[in-house]
Each structure stands twice: as C-alpha cells, then as structure tokens.
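Reply to dn_fold:

You asked what the input looked like. This is it:
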Amino acid sequence: QQQADARRHADQYVAAQTLARNGDIEGAKAAFERLTTEGPQSYRVMARMEHAAILEAQGDLEGALRDFDAAAEQTKDPVMRQSAQLRAAYLAADTGDFPALQRRLQPLIAGGGQMSYLARELLGVEAWKAGNNQLARDTLENLRLAFEAPESVRQRAAIALTVIGPAPAAPAAASGQPATPARAPSEGETK
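and this is what came back:
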C-alpha cells in the first residue's frame, strides 16, 4: 500500500509538472498547491517549491518568498533546505533590505558546501549594490581564491571585482609621508 501511495503521488507530481511545461500555469499552480498538503513530506516540499516558482514567475514575489521559506522549514533534507533558502534569498535581494539579506544568507554561508559559494556570491554582489564596497571586495576576493568553489563562481567573482575596482588608496599623512609605516632597515643598511 505504501509503495502504491508513493507511486500515485509521484504520478500526480509529474502530471503537475507536465501541466506547467504545456503552458497550463494556473492548472499547474492549483495542482502543486494541492500537493503541498498531500503525500510524503519530500513531495510536499518539492510541490511547495514548484508552487513558489510559479508565484515568482507570475510576479507574486511575497507569496513566492513565503513558500520558499515554508519549504526550507518543512524539509529535513539539507540540500532541499539550502536550495529553498537560496531561492528565498535571491527574492529577498530584490527588496533592497541588505541587513535582512545578510541574516538570510548567514546560515547558508556557515553551512558550507556548494550552496555556500552561491550565497557568498550573492552577498558580495548585494553588498556592492548597497554601497558596502569593502565587504563586497573581501567576499568576492575570498571567493575568487577559493579553489574548492565552482569555477564559474570564481570567474564571476573575478569579473565583479574588476567592475567594483580596487579599494581607494589610503590618504597620505599630513606630513606628506606615506600612510603606511616605513620599512625597517635591514642589516647593513643605514637609515
């Protein structure tokens, strides 16, 4: 019986995906919404994420954000949770509330793994857009140098760094001397 139920839910999920693929967005939206309350937990979470994606495509960003947040809370699977959290973070980035976005991204960054690199990339870009160029540079430079990060993320970080540009030079001291401390003379040199 359990296998038959699982198969039935899988078939319903595939049917909802087929509706979306064939352009029946409202039908797919209704089917996915129904599936968020039926069947095994994994199908309910996946259906909620599909429903959120449809809401996003229809311009209901608040509804999509709520659904992605709910999916992240409902799932026990870490990859599904991180995926839902990251999708929610991309939506939240559009609100312009950078401190709120930082709070959303922190668990993803702290969690490590592949999603953490995408979260760091989003943090770096959004820090730049928010005018926090130092955080943007630091985050993107660390990404650029992270050999375990996907190559595409490292390349985008390098490109973003060229757009942001270098940090401004430190102002010279009032005496006209460089702001950086002078190098101590080595043995054999005179001051």
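The chain has nine helices and no strands.
Hope that clears it up.
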